[in-house]
Structure formats: C-alpha cells, structure tokens
Design goal:
By secondary structure, chain A is an alpha/beta fold. In chain A, 52% of the residues lie in helices and 14% in strands. Chain A has helices spanning 14-25, 32-41, 46-52, 64-84, 113-124, 128-150, 171-183, 191-212, 239-242, 245-249, 279-291, 310-313, 324-327, 348-357, 371-378, 398-416, 423-430, 434-456, 458-466, 468-472, 474-502, and strands at residues 3-7, 29-31, 87-91, 104-110, 162-165, 222-226, 229-234, 257-262, 266-271, 294-301, 334-335, 361-368, 386-389, 420-422. Chain A has a 5-stranded parallel beta sheet with strand order 2-3-1-4-5, with helices on both faces. A 5-stranded parallel beta sheet of chain A has the order 12-10-9-13-14, sandwiched between helices. In chain A, helix 16 (398-416) links the parallel strand 13 (386-389) and strand 14 (420-422). In chain A, helix 4 (64-84) packs across helix 8 (191-212), helix 5 (113-124) crosses helix 6 (128-150) and helix 11 packs across helix 17. Chain A starts with a strand and ends with a helix. Chain B is α/β, with parallel strands linked by helices and 136 residues long. Chain B is 49% helix and 20% strand. Chain B has 6 helices and 6 strands; from the N terminus they run E-H-E-H-E-H-E-H-E-E-H-H. Chain B is globular. The model of chain B has no long low-confidence stretch (mean pLDDT 90). The chains are: A alpha/beta (506), B alpha/beta (136).
Chain lengths: 506, 136
C-alpha cells in the first residue's frame, strides 16, 4: 500500500517518472491536473488562486478560504485513493501533501535546464530564448504558489525522502530505485499512519462538506478528527450557524460522533484602522498562535469621524466563498461588482484575509460610536480571553488619544468583565522582545550578583542576621530582611516570569 | 473613462460576450462580440481593433491562436485572455506569447474595466486608440 508523491517543476519529468513507475508496479497514477479539473467541477475557484500569484500585489481578493477548500479537496481525494491501495501522485508540491503520513514516499525530481527548455520549446512552440524566460518566470511563480498554499519552501530538502537528478540517470533506473525504496519497512503502513490517514480523510471530507453546503459555507470552522470522532470548533459570533453542523455532517462515512464546540479562547481586537503589516497585527497573531485563539476584529469609528463612505459599506459583507453564485443564474463567469466595491473598510478585509490564511479568524464587526455600541455588538459572543485596544482616535492629538484610549479600555473592562489591555502593553505583558531580553539580562545579572555575594560572604551575612552584629543591632537585621526580601522576590520573580515567556508559558 | 476603444470579444459562451458588451459600451467603448473564433479572425483581418478579449478553450481554434493572429496583424493591439481553466502555466504562456493581461473566470466586471484602463494608459504613451483616430 505504497503512496508515492512525486514533485517537480514544469517539464521536470514528474509525469514521465510516474508513468515509468506505473509500468513497473501497475500502481494507479493520479496527477495534479486531474485533481484540479475535479475541483473546478465542484466550483472551487482554483484559477483565481493560481492567477493571484502573478498579479500585482495588493489586489484585494478573498482567497484564503478558497485555499483551505482547495487543500481540503486535495487531501480528501488523495486519502480516499490511498485508502484503497497503492497510489502514485505527481504534481507541483506532492511531497507536501498528506502531512504526517509516515508511509508516504516523498520524491523530488529535477532535470537539466537545457532539457526543460527543449521540452518547453516543443510543448509551447516558443523560441529557446522565450522558453528560457518562460521557465524562469514560471519557476518563480510556482515557488510563490508553494509558499502561499503550503507555507513551505518547495525545494527544502527536509521535506523529501528521495531526490533525483535526471542529468545522468534514466527514468527507468529512477523508477527502479523508487520501487525498491517503496518496499522498505520504513515506508510500510503502520497502525498509527493508517489511523492518521483515516483521520485526515474524515476531517478533510468534513471541511469540504461544511464549505460547500449553503447552510454553513459562510462560517469558519476548525475541524479535527480522531478515531471517527469529529470535533468542529467555531468562533462565538458564528453560533447561529453551528446548529446546522450536525445536519451537514450527519451521514459522513466513517464518522461515529460529532462534537461541536464554541471556541473558548478568543481575542477581541478593537481598532480604528487595521493593517496586516502592522506591529499590532504581528504581536496579536503571535499571542493567538501561542494560545490557539481566534482573533475577532472590531473596527470602531469614533462618533464625529464617520466618513461619507461608511453608508456605502452597509452591514459587514458576507464571509463566504461566493458559493451563492452557484445557485444564481449562469453568468458565464462574468460576475457583477459588489455594491461595496471601492469603499474604505479600514483595512478589515485585508486583515481578515490574513487571519483566515493563518487559521486565526474569529469574525469581524464595524461599529460607529463608543462603549455602548461596542458592547451592544459583542455582548453575547461569549467570553473573551483578552481584549486588545489598538490604535484609536487617530484624528486626535497624542495626549487626547492616550487618555481616550485608556478610558475606552476601562469602560470595556468594567462592562465586558474581560481583561483589557492596550496594544502598547501587549508586548510587555505577554510577548518577549528586545526590550524584555535586555530586562532579563539586567535582572539575571542582579540575581547572580546577589546570590554570589551572599554565598561568598556567608560569615558576615550570618553575623549580621544572627551573630555578633545582630547582638548589637537587633532591629537592623529585621529591618534589612523586611526591605530585602520583597526586593529579591521582585527581581527573582521578574527573571522567572521573563524566562517562562521565552518558553511561551504565561 | 474618456478614451473610447474598439474592442473585439470572442468567447464560445454567448453570455460572456453579452455581459461584457453591455458593460463596456456603458463606458463608451465600441464592442463587437463573436462566439466563433473563425469569424472573429475574419473580422480582425478586416478591421483594426485596440483591444481583443478572448477566451482560451474554444474548440478547434483556441484563444492563443486567435491572439497570435491578432498580434501578427497589429503589434499595438492589446490582448486580454480570459479563461475558466486558468493555471500558472497557461497564464505565463499567454503573457510570454504577447498577452497584455490574463484574467481567470469567474471575474468581476471591475477587473475588466481596470485592465482596459491600463491598456488605454499604455496607448496614451504611444498613440491614440483606433476609435479616436477614426474620429479625427
């Protein structure tokens, strides 16, 4: 029951190697191209994903969910085939698919540049110069694709079990080596790897169903499978959708039980304008990743700063894949523009996209007003682990902004009964940066100095505490202990706290 | 957009041409649509167009061939390829062979408008569009 996953760049010989291996083993071959065609039939917008790699950056497009859907489809299909028996798959990044399955054989392949150019000249009817240029650009595009889809470097040797260079080796010999390698005990299925394959199959099928069903497509779920038990976690603001989960997944083959749980760890991030390149974003995402938390975005537009285009934004846009288009009349793939196109949403869409991309999206809201409007919008969304007040009141001067941000934080803390901090406090309270490293070094030096002094001068210390000096100045020892103990505790506590932050323990 | 262009659209799905024609004519462009690539090629021979919008998969004659013929006749024509079967390989092939832009279906109308605007800007750097020349 071998699973051979072959990857190469365009005209790198992956298809030929797969066919050569098939001739030797009679194992079925599946290509990325076949899977992509199937995915298109399901309505997954793979073309948009692919072309986004060569378009200018900054075009706002919601593709993160499409990416998840594409990966879920690939995983579900590959798992289904692999459970039936041996499988040879070839694609751009086949070695990065089915993560964790220990009995899959991950194979990389490269052919000499001149060979690839010759093949491209033949395949596309290009001049050699143009073919070379085409390959150079395509290789870059594919590398970008792999980074975007798999968050990995496609050429990283750590992700391969075998890598062939076809410069001096024939395809038949490479296939022979593959055959022998696939027979090794290291690549035989184990109960653990088969269980993981079943779990991956179940969870990817569930993700696919939830994303394609019109009742649940608009929600963001985190799906896990373990021995036939599906755990679907959803952010609090998607509670109304959650009642459909069991119905959608009811007859999923291999599913014994469905557990739906609302995510308990949520960070509410309140800010006036969002940008995924900001320090605030990076700090909050670090914390969310550490806690396994979802991040809910709340754009607060202070009263009096309501822009003319706010009305154009209307309610928060639909969070789905645009799957509704399937039900609408066929438009030939020429879709009408969104009514809110071009309206300034304060960077919410871009930030939402990046959060989805990192699997940390917990919802979004836009409110105009103050504390009351915030509370009205978020109360009932469940308990927040932390509320972060980011950059607010941007039109005001520094001192007014600081004062109003602090007032906002106090009001939300009182009324939401959740810990509230400002973005400035976030790093010092929860994260470890350069400043914390300097503090740790300073306090650690103090601790070493104190302990060093005490243990190298034990006699005078003991005299002071209970010996000759103590006899003469009894109250002095008591006063010194009273002063020094909290001081030492503070220094030692700071060192311990910062050291724990390094290992991500709060 | 103030500049009017002569646009030829070829797509074997009539709805695509219909929707794009209605949209682009509102912007002041002159649009002709074809569902048969052979008929589109004949028209391209007979008349100068500023912009060609072509589907790729269309049966016997594909969009890449239509583009090649159009560019053979006029190097200044801007070709925008549209397809529901977009891949990186196909997009790069189109661009390498001279396409001005490559758009994957489904797309929003604003995307076509944005691409045409860029095409018009590139005309402005060289010469006027055919429609304006004809008017002069």
């Amino acid at each position: 029951m071998a699973i051979v996953m072959i990857s190469s760049m365009y005209q790198g010989g992956r298809e030929e190697l797969a066919q050569a291996l098939k001739r030797k083993t009679d194992w079925p071959v599946l290509s990325r191209e076949e899977l992509v065609d199937e995915a298109r039939k399901l309505g997954i917008k793979i073309g948009r994903l692919e072309v986004a790699m060569i378009k200018r950056p900054g075009l706002p497009e919601k593709l993160a969910r499409e990416k998840e859907l594409y990966l879920a489809f690939l995983t579900a299909t590959l798992c289904a085939k692999a459970r039936q028996g041996a499988l040879i798959y070839h694609g751009r990044a086949g070695h990065l698919l089915l993560p964790g399955i220990s009995h899959r054989l991950r194979v990389g392949l490269t052919a000499p540049r001149e060979v690839r150019i010759k093949r491209t000249v033949r395949a596309l009817n290009l001049t050699p110069d143009k073919a070379e240029n085409y390959l150079a650009q395509l290789d870059e595009d594919v590398a970008k694709w792999i980074r975007y889809i798999h968050r990995a470097d496609g050429r990283d040797p750590n992700h391969f079990d075998l890598f062939f260079n076809l410069e001096n080796m024939g395809l038949s010999n490479a296939a022979g080596i593959l055959c022998a390698t696939a027979e090794l005990p290291d690549f035989q299925p184990t109960p653990a790897s088969l269980k993981l394959l079943d779990d991956l199959h179940l969870s990817s099928q569930a993700k696919l169903r939830l994303a394609l069903d019109e009742r649940t497509h608009a929600a963001d779920f985190h799906v896990k499978a373990d021995n036939g038990v599906l755990t679907v976690t959803y952010p609090p603001d998607q509670d109304p959708v959650s009642r459909h989960i069991s119905q959608v997944l009811a007859d999923l083959p291999g599913c014994r039980e469905i557990q739906c749980t609302m995510a308990e760890t949520n960070i509410l991030w309140v800010q006036e304008r969002f940008t995924p390149e900001s320090d605030n974003f990076h700090q909050i995402i670090r914390l969310a990743q550490r806690w396994g938390a979802a991040v809910e975005l709340l754009r607060l537009i202070p009263p009096g700063e309501l822009q003319g285009d706010m009305a154009a934004l209307g309610p928060d846009p639909d969070h789905g894949f645009g799957r509704q288009a399937c039900a609408a009349a066929w438009d030939g793939g020429v879709e009408d523009d969104d009514p809110a196109t071009g309206a300034d949403d304060g960077g919410l869409s871009r930030t939402e996209e990046e959060l989805i991309n990192r699997g940390r999206y917990g919802g979004r809201h836009t409110v105009c007003g103050g504390y009351d409007q915030i509370l009205e919008r978020v109360q009932g969304n469940g308990r927040y682990t932390l509320v972060v007040i980011g950059d607010m009141f941007l039109a005001k001067g520094h001192s007014t902004r600081t004062r109003q941000t602090r007032e906002l934080a106090l009001n939300i803390r009182d009324r939401l009964k959740a810990p509230v901090i400002t973005a400035d406090e976030l790093k010092s309270r929860f994260l470890f940066g350069q400043r914390q490293a300097l503090t740790l070094a300073g306090f650690l030096a103090l601790v070493i100095l104190l302990y060093g002094l005490v243990f190298t001068h034990q006699k005078p210390v003991l005299d002071f505490l209970g010996g000759a000096i103590h006899q003469h100045f009894k109250w002095l020892a008591a006063a010194a202990v009273a002063v020094f103990s909290p001081l030492v505790a503070y220094i030692y506590g700071t060192v311990a706290g910062l050291a724990l932050k390094i290992i991500n323990v709060d | 957009m103030s500049d009017r262009c002569q646009i030829l659209i070829v797509d074997d799905e009539p709805i695509v041409g219909e929707r794009l024609k209605a949209f682009l004519e509102k912007d002041g462009h002159r649009v002709e649509t074809f569902v048969e690539p052979a008929a589109a090629l004949e028209r391209l021979e007979a008349k100068d167009f500023d912009i060609l919008i072509s589907d790729i998969r269309m049966g016997e004659i594909d969009g890449i061939q239509v583009m090649a013929k159009a560019l053979q006749k006029s190097r200044r024509i801007k070709v925008i390829m549209i397809t529901g079967y977009a891949t990186l390989e196909l997009a790069r092939e189109s661009l390498t062979k001279g396409a001005f832009d490559f758009i994957a279906k489904p797309f929003k109308l604003k995307e076509i408008r944005r691409t045409i605007k860029r095409a018009v800007e590139s005309f402005e750097q060289n010469a006027q569009p055919a429609a304006n020349r004809a008017a002069v």
